[in-house]
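Thread: dinuclear copper ion complex, take 2
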Amino acid sequence: MHDTKPEITISFGPCLPIAAMGLLLSGCVGRQSALAPAGHDAEQISNLFWVMTAGASIIWALVLGTALAATLGLFKNPTRLTPNILIVGGGVVFPTVILGILLIFGLRLLPNWQSEPDRLQIHVHGEQWWWRVVYRAPDQIEPVISANEIHLPAGQAVEFVLTSADVIHSFWIPSIGGKLDMIPGRTTRLLLEATRPGVYRGVCAEYCGTSHAKMAFAVVVHEPKDFNAWLEDRTSDPNIGTDDPGRKIFLSSGCAACHRIRGLTEIGSVGPDLSHIGSRRTIGAGIAENTPKNLARWITDPAHMKPAVQMPAYRALPPEDIAAIARFLSNLN
Ligand code: CUA
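Output below.
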């Protein structure tokens, strides 16, 4: 019996380098790129990257050029001193000077700030595998509780207060700034200033278990006045349809034991807050578009979308009940 597998020959020809270059460049734009900065820190990181890339390229060319010149015998009349000059100059003096300059350049980028009482604070608590988000504005009476989506004002420094519930996570919005670990039992702080309104993507940058790669969040940067209006809106209850059939099923199925909905049920704190969930861009911490259909899929079997998630499956509920809950949640704005 011979192998009947069809033989496939693919010829990439000149397309391959062009495609590779396209892929490389496409990684540098978009809503999750440290090289398309939309924040003060991201700009500095991006500058550091380009300075180092340019420097490394020049040094690479110098080393290769010297090696090539030596191979081709282009050094005219070498004396016994020539190797020593090359070794001391190129191997000791040159790297010391270059690394010294880079050290000074890098040290200047180290954060230097202190907590200020009149600054907006956003507490982000990492959990396997989602983000608890609490906004504390200076003149705000009651904190605004949310999850898996972060809203920011442009041109205003925001203090992130980072903690973890279980293991080490790392909070990172590549377009806006550097990353910082969230360590159980400790509080770490990060000052970020977004510069350009838009929608970006944040991620967990430290392996934290099975669904680490599915622990993301949307970041929405507003003009300051729009941000204030947004935050103000979040201090009031969402529109909850009183005769919505999904609301009854949500309450009778025990969803409220884990999830809070402002103005409806305040007890649940195990899972993400669902007040205003209808206005969020994604569900499951950045893993799927927020649509009634995806919400229904999630409620039916969350582990299918996010392996090892702690929320149980609700396969036992009739599909029409799940669809009703999904519709009810989608309308919470
Ligand atoms: Cu949380 Cu990785």
